[in-house]
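ARCHIVE CARD
CATEGORY: sequence design from structure
SOURCE FIELD: tokenized fold
FIELD CONTENT:
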């Protein structure tokens, strides 16, 4: 089968690999019907994910059909249409039982697929700990509607949940890329007083303006003054940093009011500095880290009910055979790209 593979820093390639087989009784084999490219895949390509293993098939955003299950898999059966969680987790350790599945202590736990073991930019993928890592897609929900449930939509839902958003809050979201839009959709479910989106790209601001007209828009250069003008207490009550650019971490805490919550969803290519002397007295609460993707069942229900729709994010579609071109467009942000669907 064809598999898009991490060769070395700066190089991915489409190579021939054998179809995966069951290794553990908790495994499932999934026939990938639709996948996507994530910015995290680019971080692997750029060498900024040290745990990524050369030789692995990349890709962690996918949906598919259950082809085969191990003897201990009871949550899904052969023939089920499923979403695949970006994380694998055991469900039994301290962290899993407390909802911190990103920190699962299983050897397979955390971000494994497309990072430490073969992922989904291919035809078939082996999913460890499948009882936890797979969710059945409800009848009437298409592959495209469900495509982002296991990663960017799970991230947006998690970020909105841990940010403790109330109906009186001014919420600032920095970044209107795919994860930023998913975060916006999930913040909108909380019905805050106002939402401000900060985005440097005119194309992406226009996308937000067109699809979510109630959202206020600003640019990084104008953001701090704009937020002060359009908030009640001299800054945003909740800031969600989803951009991961060189200066957006600083912008996040600068735009927060005293005693606000700053949730850092972004993955950075370089280390960020926490300038405590300048921040002293703001009494900010920071929430950071990888997504705890344990809400996929709830997210799928919201999609089935028509309360979340991420299909407008799919701006391009390519077959797996043309994935090199898809990456080129995505990495260079050409042709108004937001997300790309890769089909088999």
């Amino acid at each position: 089968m064809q598999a898009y593979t991490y060769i070395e820093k700066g190089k991915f390639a489409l190579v021939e690999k054998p179809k995966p087989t069951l290794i553990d009784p908790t495994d499932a084999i999934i026939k990938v019907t639709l996948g996507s490219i994530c910015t995290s895949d680019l971080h692997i390509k750029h060498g900024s994910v040290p745990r990524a293993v050369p030789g692995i098939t990349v890709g962690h955003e996918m949906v598919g059909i259950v082809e085969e299950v191990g003897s201990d898999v009871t949550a899904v059966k052969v023939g089920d249409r499923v979403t695949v969680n970006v994380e694998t987790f055991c469900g039994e350790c301290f962290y899993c039982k407390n909802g911190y599945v990103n920190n699962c202590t299983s050897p397979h736990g955390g971000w494994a697929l497309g990072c430490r073991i073969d992922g989904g930019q291919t035809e078939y993928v082996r999913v460890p700990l499948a009882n936890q890592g797979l969710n059945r897609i409800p009848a009437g929900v298409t592959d495209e509607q469900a495509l982002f449930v296991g990663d960017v939509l799970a991230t947006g839902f998690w970020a909105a949940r841990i940010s403790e958003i109330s109906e009186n809050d001014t919420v600032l979201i920095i970044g209107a890329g795919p994860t930023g839009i998913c975060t916006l959709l999930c913040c909108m479910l909380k019905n805050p007083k106002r939402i401000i989106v900060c985005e440097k790209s005119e194309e992406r601001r226009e996308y937000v303006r067109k699809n979510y007209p109630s959202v206020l828009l600003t640019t990084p250069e104008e953001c701090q003054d704009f937020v002060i003008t359009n908030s009640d207490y001299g800054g945003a009550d909740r800031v969600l940093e989803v951009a991961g650019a060189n200066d957006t971490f600083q912008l996040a805490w600068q735009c927060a009011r005293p005693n606000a919550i700053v949730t850092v969803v972004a993955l950075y290519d370089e280390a960020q500095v926490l300038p405590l002397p300048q921040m002293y007295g703001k009494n900010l609460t920071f929430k950071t880290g990888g997504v705890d993707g344990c809400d996929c069942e709830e997210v799928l229900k919201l999609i089935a009910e028509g309360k979340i729709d991420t299909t407008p994010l799919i701006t391009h579609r390519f077959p797996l055979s043309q994935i090199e071109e898809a990456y080129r467009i995505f990495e260079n942000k050409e042709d108004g790209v937001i997300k790309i669907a890769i089909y088999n």
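CARD ANNOTATION: The domain at 2-151+292-343 is CATH 3.90.180.10 (Quinone Oxidoreductase; Chain A, domain 1). The chain has two domains: 2-151+292-343, 156-288.
SHELF: design records, drawer C
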